[in-house]
Each structure stands twice: as structure tokens, then as C-alpha cells.
Amino acid sequence: MGAPAAGSSRRCCVCTRKRLAIWMGALGALLLAVGIAIDPAVNWLVKMEVKDSVMLTSTSSALYDQWQNPSIPIYMTFFMFNVENPEEVFDHGSPPFVREMGPYVYNELRIKVNVTWNANQTVLTYRQHQTYIFNQEMSGTNTEDDQITTINFGLCGLVGLLYTKGLAVKMAIDGLLQAFPKEKYFMTRPVREILWGYKDPLMSALHLVDNTIDPIIALQQNDSAPDWQFDSKILTGKEDINQVVRYIQWDGFTELPYWGSKYANMINGTDASQFAPDVQDDFIAAVFVDSIYRSAYLLYHSDVSVEGIRLKRFTIDPMLLANSTVNPDNAAFYDFGPSGVLNMSTAAGAPVFASKPHFLDGDEIYRTNVLGLHPVREWHDTNLDIEPITGALMQAAKRLQLNMEIRNDPYIFRTGKTPYAMLPIFYGNESVCITADLAGQFKDQVYTPLIASTAVHWSGIALGSIMLLVCIVLVALLVRERRSGLDLSAYNVNQGEDSALLGKGQTWE
């Protein structure tokens, strides 16, 4: 009676292992399939959600509030260059020696007004109201009343305009200048006037002759009314998400009137606050920089992080600052001198040039002609740190230096012996960094589902693989038993028969 019971138990055990192998295989395959599929599925869903969120098709668009009135603090920090030896420069032709003064920090407020869409929500029209409010706390002991010695902008601009004129014109202007004995080639004025403007005596006199000449000289605009601006238009991304927030018109211009070719006058790129989603290392960040009236291109530099968010850092393409010999495309921008500066004279109506602060990446001649400059890449380069999933700008330092081309003219007495130089006036650092609160919201909305899907992805693959491995082992054991004909119950029966034939105590030899 014992042997059949043992065989039945063994058959039951085999059936249990078969069922276990089937269940383990099915469940393992399911977990493996889920693990493999969930990551790309969630990534796809997140991309679709991001695409919908960055389109600017209505006031209810997720991006609209931050675009229309950013809650992330924006700061504009100015560093002024004080000429320490104006008499030596004027009287003896010594190189100017400058001392950097600052910081002078301003809160920058950007508000878009008069926002409208076209009929199919593909184009958005607006005007931007941009103002600056002095931040005394962040400026420390520096104030807007600090006195800065620099070149006389009006007189320098006039000398620049007369540089190619004939002797008679120059002598006539020199005679006119005798009526303004207080107007020297170098002037001392407070920071607020140098930045935001002052009524220039010489320009005021010329205004009486030609009312198109503005008597106010201002290096920076501090708008108080959107009526001062014209319409700008951007793409909403509805037709092509890769074109989201790209300019098609800026301040009334569909193309600029300042440069020497249609290509140079094109308005390309965004305002740098947002780019197309899914930013890769080969992405070229196209930005229209309104302060220099031209488009710029930034290339991938490195990966960085802020507030636990992974970002891609982009820096200015070196070819942007190259002269026309190195980069023939820059001939249309009139960049014929040594590399490192951008010629803004046509747009500004004065011998104004832009550069990186302290002439970083510029020709050494600029720092030879002006002493006291010491470029440091960490302090003086421009960086845009873009979140690659959404294309949003999360951290930035946009640094730009304004310079004036100074020289003497033997027929204009007021220029003295001033040597030729590219004199830095100031540089600005427009900076922004996402706050901890906004970073937390971003991570909850974007990172959390991705992290969860990644966890499920690898857990599913791991558990599914283990269960399939166990299934394979069980199947292998079952196949092995079947092939060997090993049946424990039959083996026990045969053992009993052998014992009966041999008799008690006997064994096979």
C-alpha cells in the first residue's frame, strides 16, 4: 500500500512544479513586458504633456503666466569703468587706466502687454514693458550717485561722425565747440546719468538746428510706458513645437535696417527665456539679442545642475566675435577690426562697440590700449543653462560690455592727444536663477513620474527576469526527469521486488 502512495505524491509534486513553472513564466513575461514598455511609454506621455504646456496658444496655457510676467527674480547688475588718469590721456597720450566700480544692482521687471493671437493661435502679438528698479541692499555701499569719470559721449560721438569728413567741416565744428568751454573730452557724472540718460549741452544746441537730434543721451533704456515700443510677434508652437516663442517680428521690424545684407538683418531665435523641448548636446540655441540688434548662436558647453535639476549649459559661439577675416559672414556686420568686439555704430549712431566683459576672448590689443582689465571666464562669460526636457531657461548670466571708440583728431582741439582705444564704459550682467519653490514644483510635475517609471522599468525587468529564470530552471528539471525515466514510485516498487527475490540480508554482487 505504501508504494502507490509515494508514486501518487511524486506525481502531485510534478504537477505542482508544472503549474508553478507556468505561473512563474507567465507572470515573469508580463513583468518583463511591463518593465520594458513603461519607460518609453511614460517618456512619451511626458513629452506630449511638455509639448502641450510650452505652447502659447491662450492665456490658459501652462507657460503663459511665466512668459507674460515672470515670477523668477531677474537682476541686472552693472559694473562701471572709472578712468583714473584722464589728464594724462588727454595731455600726454597715455593709455587710459580704468578701475572697475560696482556692483550696481537693479531688479528687472518684464511685463508683456496688449497680448493678442491671430485667428488660428499660431502667432502671438505683444509689447514688452521693461523697467529697472535700483536694489540698494544688493548693491552694498554703492549708490546711483557715485561719480564716474569716462569719455564725453556727445563729443566722442561727434568726433566719430566727423572722422571721415573734410577739413572745412571739422574746423567749423571745432569753432562751434568754442561756445561750450565746459565740455571736455572726459566728463564726470553720476552712475544714474551715465546709465539712464542726461541732457547733453552740445546735443541740445545741435537739436536747435536739427530737431531729429535727441538732446538726451542714454546708454540704457528704462521704459515707463509701452507706448514707446512697437509690436513684437512670436510663434506659439502650435504648428511646429520646434519654433515655439521664436521671433517673426521685433519692435515693429520683420527684418532690421542696420546691417549690410539680408542675412545679417534677419531676426532669428527667441528672447532666450524658452527654447523648443527635448534639447540635445548638438542643439544650437538661437537668440535674438535686442541690446546689440542682432542674432547670436550658443553651443553646448557642459552639463550643470541647480536646485537638483539637471541642465545643459550653452555658451556663445566663438565665431560671433571673430572679425570678417576669420568669419566672412561678419563683414555684413562691419566687423573689420581685431576680433573680440561687435560693431554697433550704425545702429547706435555713435562709435559704440559691444564685447565680452574685460574683452574676454578678444584680441590682446584691446587690453594693451586700455590698462586695468583682467578677464576671468567664470565672471565674464555668458552662460545659458537650459532644462533639456522642457527647453526652459532655469539659470543664466548674460554678460555684455559697452565700449566707445576714442581717438584724437588734429583738427578738433577738444580731443587733445587722446590715443586710439576701445574704452570700456560699463558691463552688465543680466542674471536669473530658478527659485527653490519653483524648482520643487518642476520636479514634482516632471521628474516624479519619470523617476517612478524608471523604478517600475528596472523593477519589472529584474523581477520578470528572475521569475523567467526560475521558470526555465523548473522546466529544465521536469524535462530532465522525463528524459531519464526517473520515477521514484516505480523505483521503490522495484526495490521491493529485488528484496523478495534475494531474501533477507542478501545483496546483488
Automatic annotation (TrEMBL):
The chain crosses the membrane at residues 20-38, 455-479. One of its GO terms (cellular component) is cytoplasm. Pfam families: CD36. It is found in: Membrane. GO terms for molecular function: scavenger receptor activity. The keyword Transmembrane helix applies. The keyword Transmembrane applies. Keywords: Glycoprotein, Membrane, Transmembrane, Transmembrane helix. It comes from the Eukaryota. PANTHER family: LYSOSOME MEMBRANE PROTEIN 2, SCAVENGER RECEPTOR CLASS B TYPE-1 SR-B1. Belongs to the CD36 family. This is Uncharacterized protein. It comes from Capsaspora owczarzaki (strain ATCC 30864).
